[in-house]
Every structure is written in structure tokens, then in C-alpha cells.
Amino acid sequence: MIVTANSKAAGTFSSVKNIPFTFTPEVVPRKNVIIGTFDPLKTDIVADVPIQVFSPEDVGAKCGFGFMIHRLAEQCFKGSGAGIETWIVPQDENGTAVAAAGSIDFTGSTASNETLYLYISGILDRPIAISLANAADDAEICSRTVDAINAIKELPVTAAINGVTPEICDITAKSKDVWGNGITIAFSRRPGEETPASITAVITAMTGGSGGYDITTALDALGTGDNANEKFFTEFIHGYGSLAFDDILTYVGPGDQKIGLYAETVHKPFQSLYGDVGAGSAGLTAVLAAAELRRETDRANGYIAVAGSLSHPSEIAALTMGHRSRVANSRPEQNYVDIILTGIDPGDEADRWTNDYANRDTAVKGGVSPTVVRNNTVYLQNVVSFYRPESVPINSNAYASFRNLAIMQNILDTQYKAFNTPKWKNFTIVQDATLVGNTDAKEKVRDIDAVVDEWLNLIQGWYNLAWIYETARAFEVIGTPGAVTIRGGTDGFDANSEVILSGEGNILNNETNIDTSIAILG
Fold first, then answer.
1. pTM of the predicted structure, to 2 decimals
2. Which residues contact 116 (CB under 8 A, 6 or more apart)?
3. Which of 25, 178, 195, 290 has its CA 20 to 30 A from that of 429?
4. Are residues 188 and 298 located together in one domain of the fold?
5. Which residues form the domain of 370?
């Protein structure tokens, strides 16, 4: 080097030097993907092709407002905000699919100027306010209801006056298939709202939706083989309910195996949820039984339960996953306790098995994510997957918690990136890199110590981000002879590290002993 710290003569200097920079782990940017059917009249949409979208309005304009994929997007964006990259994979409806239908049969008339508050699919942040003049009869009430429903394009249904009985409002799901069977119809769901005593509204629940879905074509559109989930979607949102569990699990990879999205050549797993609205003790029993069937292998799916809710189960899940992407985008080590599910119907008090801690504890241990309701507002608690094999102790089950799974997504990604830098391309393996004398050769020689050093840096980076619990043992393990070895053909290295994930702060158990006697004071 000509110029040193002690140089004095004037001059302008320029040089370059090829130095392998140290890799610093960074948080994986979250990326949502939404799968669902769209308006068949949107003929410019090509099914099963991923499209990046930027808002619910963008999805509605492309795919039809109120159709399945738009409803999911509205909830997802509500949770994630505008800062999370989001894509959709629109799917055609089954050619033989049938739309669900229901109705409202009005009798009576108004005794004064009144307002009815109607809710479709438990969407509390889109109330349907039906203004009625004094002495409006049942046919007028029906007509006003039809107009009010159809005026809100974001709703998942259309309405029409019955062709035979003008006081009956016929309601039809925009999206066909079983999706529509989960759409509810209800009046006065928020505090202070009442249906006038002079009006009776008999609701026929939405039913009759049928058909069938094939989510595999959408999954394949994300990539197959070593290119599976090529864009690295971290949150997977869909409208197909438990019917899609098996296909999603097959794509992600069942059990604690290096297959699917957990394969060494892929390392890009995502997770997914479906809502459960089963009411009362029977609802808890049913959802636990469903989760039990999947406990041995399913680290990809889970249930999020809002007991007795009138919101669509898939929309509850979409909102939850949107929140998860937002939180994990900056702090994957954070859990989701007490995040508010804005606009989700809380269900009736009597239906909430989630009110009891013992029930929530049973649910979490059984692979079901409970919620709590305070002041008619729904809050997240533990968010968990189904995965609970008998062979894995409960305190060692890393796949059980969605928070842990977010950390694992980041560990897999940063582990790959650390060894995919120019430093680890086109290298030469030697026994001891310090003994290589040629300057040019030294730039690209690597030995076991170089691998260990990279791992030490990686482990420290994970700890700095609070993804792992400690470093001392992790450093010791990776530095133990045999943890890093040269492959038999001298064509690479095998490394095996061990880390303990950082703890998920869920429980604070405090107790104060109380006495009224002062005898202890002497």
C-alpha cells in the first residue's frame, strides 16, 4: 500500500479490493398470497396465474367486488396494512357449482321513522342501515332492504324481491360453492341496535351452496419441485376451508421431514389458517376432534376459533393471517396476543366457550387457536398449528406455535443466504487456510474453521434479533469436532448446529401471600 495513515504528500487516490463481507441476518420480508374464486364475468382474468395486488379495491376491480377472493383480500389488507407485499391466485368456479341462497321474510309495518341494522356475513364494519318512513309496510321494508344490500358492492351477496311474495327478500351468494353456506344474515349485532317491535323478520339461513374446489392448480402456480413457493410467500390465505387442508399439507410437507417446502432445496415454508365458529361446549368438542385427526403430521394448517361468531370462518382466518404478516415483517419473534380482530362478530355471550381459561388452555394443547372477547371486541390469543405428535414432548414442539414457525422461516432463509454469498461461491477446500501463501489463492480457500466462523456469526446474528435463547451452548456445539466436516469427496462441507428458539412470552403467573397478623414483625 502506497498511501498509509502517516502519508503527507498531496494526492487523490482510488483503488478496489475484493473482500468477502460478513453476512448479517435480516428479517424475511413477509409476503401474502390469497387463493379464491372470482367473478366469472371478469373475462380478462387468467385463472391460476399469480397477480400482485395493492389494495382490496384493486382486487375488487380485477376480480369482482364481494366475490370470495375480494372478501379475503379485504380482511387480509385490514390486518396487514399496505406495507406487506400481497398477491392473489384467482381460480375459476367449478362448472357445476351452485350458489348458496337464503331469505328474509318481513311482516308488520313501522310505527314511526325507523332504522334497521342488517349484517351480512358478520361484517360489523359494513353495517347495512335501512331507513324506513312511518307506516312502511312489509313490502316497502323488503324493497328498502334489497336496495340497501345492493348498494354496498363489497358485500358477498346480492338481493332481490321475491317474484311471488313481495315481502320476502331473496339473498344469493355472489360466489358459488360451499363458501356461501358460511355467509350469515342477522339484525342488530352491535350494542344499542334494536329491531322495532312492530316488525318481524324471519331469516332463512344461507344454504344449498355446492360444487367442489381444486386448490392444487393454484399451489402448482406458486412453483413445483425445487422451485416450489419460488416467490417465498410466508402467509397462505384461501377460502376453501378444511377441504384444502390435505392439499396444503402435501405441498408444504408433512411431519418433521425435509420434504415439500421444508426440503433442503426449497426451504420456503408457509402456514395457513381456517376459522371455526362452533358455539358452546359442543363447538369446542367438535373443533378439538377435527384437530386431533391432524395432530401427527400437520405443521402447515390450524384453526382460529371465534365461538358463535357470525363472521365467515375464512374471513376470520384471512384477517388473522394479515395481522401475522404485519407483526412478523418487523419482529418475527413477537406473538399475536391481544391483537384486535376489527369488524369480526364476537358471537353471543352464551356461545363463547372461549370465556373460560380452562377451555382456552385445552384448545391450545389440542391444536386450536382460541380468541377472547372483551367489550364485544375479539382479541387474538395463542395462534397454533395442528402439529402435536405423541412422540414430541409439548415443551419441545417448535412447529406448534405460529410465532415459532415465523422464526423458523427466518432461520431457514438466513441460513441459506449466509452460505449463498460470493464468499461461498467457487471456493477451494484445504485443510488449513492459514498455511496458503499465495495472495490470490488465499481469497478463495476455505477450511473447517471458515465454516465454523460463518456459523458463529450466523448464531450471533440470530441472537441479536432475539430469535434464539442463548449463544454459549450453540457456539460450543458448532465448535465441537465433528459438527463441521469435509465431505468424503472433498467437494464441500456438512455442518450440524443446534439452537434453542427464544421463549414465547405468554404466561405471567404471580402470587402474593397475605396475612392480617403483625406477629411476624416482632
1. 0.95
2. 129, 130, 132, 141, 145, 187, 195, 196, 199, 201
3. 25
4. no
5. 31-93+213-406
